[in-house]
User: What shape does this take?
Amino acid sequence: MQFLENFKEGLTSIKGNLLRSSLTATIIAIGISSLVGIITAIDGMKASIEGNLSSLGANTYTLRSINNNSRGNEGGKARKIFPPIKYAEFQRFQEKFQGEETMSLSAYLSWNAEIKFGSEKTNPNVRIVGIDHNYLTLEDAEFAYGRDLTPNEVSSGAPVVILGDAIASKLFPVGQRINPVGKFITAYGASFRIVGVLKSKGALNNNQGVDRAIMIPIEKARMLSAGSQLNYNLKVGLGAAMEIEPSIGRATPIMRAIRQDRPGEENSFEIKRDQSLAESLNEISGQLKIGAIGIGFITILGAAIGLMNIMMVSVTERTREIGVRKALGATPAKIKQQFLIEAITICLIGGFAGVLLGFIFGNVVARTVDAKGLVFPVEWMFLGFVVSVLVGVISGYMPAAKASKLDPIESLRFE
Assistant: This one.
């Protein structure tokens, strides 16, 4: 009952100094809202960006030959040169690597091809990529016209082609754009029938993506390579609930066995984790959160000092009241409890308002970058309330201790 009475006394004191208490609670609310709001916005933007990164390969990894040209010396010794991975080796891997992953084998036939359609032609900087029927699925590409390659076209090496958006725009200008499907183009000395045109997808840099490329069946690329060794890449796409490390852990020993790598020796192939994009995003968002915590801490520190000052003034103003309570039997512990409850109550009011404002502000900012759904940073919202209580305790302890130590006789004489 005494705790309840102290709580009521605290509320009465807050009402008696409503403007002063409201200003203090507002400062605390600003500090908490800056903390919760910024982190909510960061989480919302991160979720949106991660969704976009998945279309750029953030949920994939690639098996490929080691680039021997970039291998220097190690300890004064030339590092071992490994032969490139053969087409048959990748085929055996695909047969043995059974799971929920999606695999796509591809190879670049040319990086500087010239593509022709009638009198129109491109600059000699077009990439020709030999692909299978899963390649564009893992690239998250969408079709503007036509369709994807069929498994039969891939295995038979049919003379069909899919154009990237930039290539189609060059060969079929927008002003006279027609449906290119069914038309024939010339590339690498061969004629191809267009079966599909991709929508513009964008890229991380000028050397990536499908916009400035044409895609042909990988068997056709092998035929046109005239027996020369192509540099093959096998991209492995993960399911939504899959993690990259276990998948790589299963893929590595299978490829080592196919390549006949001896125990203790390094891999004769390379696994490139495309998830490095997502890892960079996590690092950046972590740094932003540290900045948000710093901003919130500075604001809350100012609020704590303001609250302590208000509580000191309150103790001075209520010195006579404290003397009366002590004369009636209130112990120093009860007096201290009353002022602590008052300080914590002010902070909790400010904390609740700050969490609510931060949640609203953060989601509004997140929506500006097309984040889907509401973001509920539960742990940070809970932390906001914990910080509010801590500020109340820290700011209110010294004034409460001062009030509890007042001499009742001197307090009753105070004017």
About this structure: Residues 133 and 149 are 5 Å apart (CA to CA). The mean pLDDT is 80. The radius of gyration is 34 Å.
